[in-house]
Structures are given as C-alpha cells and as structure tokens.
Write a structure and sequence with these properties.
Distance between the termini: 45 Å
Radius of gyration: 21 Å
Strand content: 15-25%
Number of helices: 11
Order of helices and strands: EEHEEHHEEHEEHHEHEHHHH
Number of strands: 10
CATH architecture of the largest domain: Alpha-Beta Complex
Structural class: alpha/beta
C-alpha cells in the first residue's frame, strides 16, 4: 500500500490505519496530488479490516499547513475554484465514509488543514497544536468548507469571530472553544487517539457506528423533518443485523433485562 502514495505515510494496525501527511518541504500542505491520494486510500480501505483512520502530520511542526498556497497563487479564478471544489469533494467523501475518521492534530493546523480536521468525525489536538482559519490575513476566505462546517460546530457567532480575525488557538484553548474533542501531550497524541478508539468506539458494532454517523451528518443537510426521515431510514437498517436481537435475548436469559412480557420461545433458545 505504501508505494502507491507519495505524500502519505501509512501504518496498517489492523482495525486502525494511521495516515501521516508527508510533504516535509511544503508544510504538509494539501495539493491536488495529496487530495487524490487521500481519496484513493479511503476507497482502498473499503471492505477491509480497517474500522477507523487516524490522520496526523509527519514531523513535529505541521499537521496540515493549509491548502498549498504556492499552487493557488499561480491559479486563475476559475482554476482556484476547481481546486476548492476538489477539496470540498474529498471532505464530503470523508463524511460519507463508513469509516470513523480521527484528526490527531500534532502541530500547526490552519486553513485547509483545519477544514480537513472539521470533516473528520473526531478531533484530538496536541497541547502544542495551533488551530484556526486565518485565510483573511492573506486576502482569501476559507474555500474547503470552513465557512459552512465551522458555524455548524461552534455556532455562527463564534465562527464569524474566528474567520474575521483569523486567530489561531492553542490546543487547550481549542478544546475550550469546542474546536476539538480532546487534548493530549505531544508524545502521547497517537497513543491516546488509538486508546480512545479501542476503549470507547470499537466496543460498539461497526454497522451501528456507520449508520449513526450517517444520521448525525444528515442533521446539517436540510430541515428537521428531512433529518428525522434520514434518521428513520438508518434506524430501520439496524434490524437487518442480528446484534441487537441476540444481545436482548442474552440479557433476558441471564436475568439482566427484566420484563413482564410473554415472549416467544425462540428468545430462550
């Protein structure tokens, strides 16, 4: 798998795939090739033993140092629009993926880097991380979904402040602002991310995680009525699996789950 990707370092740990952005001379920034490689990797991981992907940055300085400004400065408005759309497409694909995605933010994470993190399901930051959307400082605006995902995460007021000031937040402050879910010491970041997945997420069946993820993201894509319809659609799919029924039967037989209902014989087999 490693030979396919020039800008990604990949460690396969069975249920977890650790992916490090590796463009050391270019701030681990996102260029077109890197976007293509992440998209290809997500497709390659389908129908494998992988349940979650942890994204981080190689080295100690950058998680992702934005979308590649060197590329964008040479673009026409039409070309930079196409680049923006390509990044947006990748981030939409990440949200739609049945895999659980985690951003392990080990350093500078700004612009397109934080937009990438926003599209991950979970975000864990190093205490040395610096996070934000500073595009206005260089005469741009967020173009990878930041103006849409950030308000959904922290509210329009806080998002407006962050984007208009271009301020970067250190790890602990980012946690207080709701930009990340957890903070870890730099040397423990990846280990803590793995531990979190194995202790809190992986005990749950993968199909339920994927269906829950899809239903939650549907809340951002329409009215409450549309969201509830999407939830109902995914909820029904749970009973296509036998996990819930088997668990209920087990708890009934062990006396853990009490009931006065008269149950069919197959419950006790």
């Amino acid at each position: 798998m490693k030979s396919k990707y020039a800008n990604l370092l990949i460690e396969d740990k069975g249920e977890i795939c650790i992916v490090a952005f590796h463009r050391p001379g270019d701030r681990n920034s996102l260029d077109s090739r890197t976007i293509d490689e992440v998209a290809a990797l997500l497709s390659a991981l389908k129908n494998t033993a992988t349940r979650a992907v942890i994204f981080t940055g190689s080295g100690n300085e950058y998680f992702i140092g934005g979308a590649d400004g060197i590329v964008m400065m040479q673009c026409t408005p039409q070309e930079v629009g196409a680049f923006s759309a390509k990044l947006q497409t990748l981030l939409n694909k990440m949200e739609a993926s049945p895999l659980i995605t985690v951003a392990a933010i080990n350093g500078l994470c700004f612009g397109g880097g934080y937009e990438f993190a926003l599209a991950c399901d979970l975000r864990i930051a190093s205490t040395k991380a610096k996070i934000g959307l500073p595009e206005v400082k260089v005469g741009l605006i967020p173009g990878g979904g930041g103006t849409q995902r950030l308000p959904r995460l922290v509210g329009i007021g806080k998002a407006m402040e962050m984007i208009l000031t271009g301020r970067l937040y250190k790890g602990e402050e980012a946690l207080l602002q709701g930009l990340v879910h957890q903070v870890a010491l730099p040397e423990a970041l990846l280990a803590d991310a793995e531990k979190y997945l194995r202790e809190w997420v992986f005990p749950n069946p993968q199909y339920a995680l994927s269906l829950a993820k899809k239903a939650v993201y549907a809340s951002d894509k329409g009215s409450l009525a549309q969201g509830l319809k999407a939830e109902n659609t995914e909820f029904k799919k749970c009973l296509k699996q036998d996990y819930f029924v088997k668990l209920m039967c087990k708890q009934i037989k062990e006396g853990i789950l009490k009931t006065t209902a008269k149950l069919p014989g197959w419950v006790y087999k």
